[in-house]
């Protein structure tokens, strides 16, 4: 019963804190960590120990999967070079930089173990950076690069961590062993992800029930993650590849009802999982402090050094790799050099999250021959990096973006492109209508023509003045009032016994669907 109370309390705090964060204009991940830290010092309140397997096996796969589903495959492929430079190159660079820094501070700790902590703190979080980027309206390409980085960097960090820990506990690790481990992780993860995408896509194609479709979607992250991990491949890579494959083909795999239900379902799951993760991170502070053996002054100095290296390493890596690549003519022709604002804002979007803490908690208790090392210090350093980057970089990223005057996407250009494509789509729809109309009633055919025309006009209206109500906006406003009146009639009929509850629910569902289309601007 105590476990159930903790789960209910956890969800309640996540919801309440998220509401408060929106009210006061603070990013919810930051406030959730701060609230978690405060609660951790209240005895008996939400005393939940974070199990690394819960994060790495239970929470990480669905979070990565839904992020991959929402990622544009064409945009991902176009930005693959900067994504890999960050997700692979920067993670390794940060691992080495932090490792050597720790070795100078702790000369008695094996270098391999110092590299292990470097791998732990190297990957930015899959949630925090993109949450900030979307909220402050950063350019679409910046968001794509940050999303792509966060999808892959966990795999690089976890494979690097696996190699470093193996070396630290006494396993023989030469260059060939490292190359083999990395190759199996990447190639195996890609292969299993592709196979999983084909298999799950085959199932979705043949399922017509939205509930079963959603159940299959819920199982998918673990269907590819668990086999990959059991074969020593990268489960993270498998989940990402599978999610990208399915997300790109989703319009042809599922019915409209399944897609609508799945979208709502994953939005709720994502909200609860992400919020719970950040709250759980904050809740660990009191327990972590109890395990630190070193004096406070040394711990604070080591933390300042590691946080500084983590932040500076990202800046030092990003600018040269961004502009030196343009010295290659083929790269420069395909992708001209960006202004300094873009790389600068990406360099400041290095917030860490729960994967860092989970990986730190999974560090071994002892090293080769039972040798001890300051594990408690390593874990508190990882925790400190999470809090420092979230609070320092997460809270200031909007200000940095404004100071750099990062240009947003051209909304007019987007609206023009949408209107042009919508016009083509409406013409194709009307042409198809003329082919198949046959003996259909004239009123029905005319109504369909008007609907196609209305969709096309709505797209062009977005190019008009923002301070003037468009015909589509007026239609939506008036139709909502009509729907409210219709709902009231059905409710009164149910209360008076003229119709059963089931009839009210069906009518309510139809009206709710229509209103949701009005809110999305599709009617």
Descriptive notes:
By secondary structure, the chain is mainly alpha-helical. Helix content is 78%, strand content 0%. The chain is built from 22 helices and no strands. The protein has helices spanning 2-24, 28-40, 52-69, 73-78, 80-105, 111-121, 128-135, 140-168, 175-205, 210-230, 235-253, 256-283, 285-290, 296-324, 329-334, 341-347, 354-361, 375-404, 411-436, 442-461, 471-495, 501-520. The longest helix is centred in the middle third of the chain and has 31 residues, at 175-205. The two termini are 48 Å apart.
Tally of helical segments? 22
The coarse overall form would be: globular
Please, what is the oligomeric state? single chain
> What is the H/E order?
HHHHHHHHHHHHHHHHHHHHHH
What is the gyration radius calculated from CA atoms?
26 Å
Instruction: Please give the number of β-strands.
Output: 0
Keywords:
523 residues, single chain, mainly alpha, 0% strand
Summarize the helices and strands and which ones pair or pack.
Blueprint: H1 2-24, H2 28-40, H3 52-69, H4 73-78, H5 80-105, H6 111-121, H7 128-135, H8 140-168, H9 175-205, H10 210-230, H11 235-253, H12 256-283, H13 285-290, H14 296-324, H15 329-334, H16 341-347, H17 354-361, H18 375-404, H19 411-436, H20 442-461, H21 471-495, H22 501-520
Helix pairs in contact: 1-2, 1-12, 2-12, 2-18, 3-10, 3-11, 3-12, 3-17, 5-6, 5-8, 5-14, 6-8, 7-8, 7-18, 8-9, 8-11, 9-10, 9-11, 10-11, 10-12, 14-16, 14-18, 17-18, 19-20, 21-22
Protein name: Na+/H+ antiporter
Region (Disordered): 494-523
Keywords: Antiport, Cell membrane, Ion transport, Membrane, Sodium, Sodium transport, Transmembrane, Transmembrane helix, Transport
């Amino acid at each position: 019963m105590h476990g159930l109370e903790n789960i209910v309390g956890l969800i309640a705090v996540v919801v309440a804190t998220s509401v408060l964060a929106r009210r006061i204009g603070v990013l919810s991940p930051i406030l959730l960590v701060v609230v978690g830290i405060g609660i951790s010092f209240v005895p008996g309140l939400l005393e939940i120990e974070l199990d690394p397997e819960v994060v790495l096996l239970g929470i990480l796969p669905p979070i990565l999967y839904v992020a991959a589903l929402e990622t544009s495959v064409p945009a991902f492929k176009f930005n693959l070079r900067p994504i890999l430079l960050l997700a692979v190159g920067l993670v390794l660079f940060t691992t080495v930089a932090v490792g050597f820094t720790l070795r100078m501070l702790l000369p008695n700790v094996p270098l391999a173990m110092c590299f292990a902590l470097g791998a732990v703190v190297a990957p930015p979080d899959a949630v925090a950076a993109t949450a900030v980027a979307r909220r402050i309206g950063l350019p679409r390409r910046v968001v794509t690069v940050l999303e792509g980085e966060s999808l892959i960097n966990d795999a690089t960090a976890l494979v690097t961590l696996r190699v470093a820990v193996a070396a630290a506990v006494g396993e023989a690790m030469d260059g060939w062993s490292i190359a083999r481990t990395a190759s199996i992780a990447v190639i195996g993860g890609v292969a299993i992800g592709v196979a999983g995408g084909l298999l799950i896509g085959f199932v979705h194609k043949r399922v017509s029930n939205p509930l079963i479709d959603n159940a299959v979607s819920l199982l998918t992250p673990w269907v590819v993650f668990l086999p990959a991990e059991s074969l020593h491949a990268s489960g993270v890579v498998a989940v990402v590849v599978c999610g990208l494959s399915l997300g790109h083909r989703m319009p042809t795999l599922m019915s409209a009802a399944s897609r609508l239900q799945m979208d709502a379902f994953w939005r709720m799951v994502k909200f609860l999982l992400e919020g719970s993760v950040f709250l759980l991170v904050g809740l660990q502070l009191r327990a972590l402090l109890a395990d630190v053996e070193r004096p406070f002054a040394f711990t604070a100095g080591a933390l300042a050094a590691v946080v500084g290296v983590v932040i500076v390493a990202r800046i030092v890596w990003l600018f040269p790799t961004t502009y030196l690549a343009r010295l290659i003519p083929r790269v420069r022709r395909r992708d001209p050099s960006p202004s300094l604002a873009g790389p600068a804002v990406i360099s400041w979007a290095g917030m860490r999250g729960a994967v860092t803490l989970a990986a730190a908690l999974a560090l071994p208790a002892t090293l080769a021959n039972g040798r001890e090392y300051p594990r408690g210090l390593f874990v508190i350093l990882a925790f400190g990096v999470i809090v420092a980057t979230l609070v320092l970089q997460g809270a200031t990223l909007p200000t940095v973006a404004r100071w750099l005057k990062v240009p947003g996407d051209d909304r007019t250009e987007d609206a023009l492109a949408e209107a042009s494509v919508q016009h083509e789509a409406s013409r194709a729809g009307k042409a198809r209508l003329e082919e198949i109309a046959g003996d259909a009633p004239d009123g029905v055919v005319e109504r369909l023509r008007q609907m196609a025309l209305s969709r096309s006009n709505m797209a062009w209206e977005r190019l008009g003045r923002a301070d003037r109500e468009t015909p589509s906006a007026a239609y939506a406003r008036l139709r909502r009032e009509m729907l409210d009146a219709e709902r009231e009639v059905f409710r009164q009929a149910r209360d008076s016994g003229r119709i059963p509850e089931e009839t009210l629910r069906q009518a309510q569902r139809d009206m709710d669907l229509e209103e949701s289309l009005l809110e999305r601007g599709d009617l």
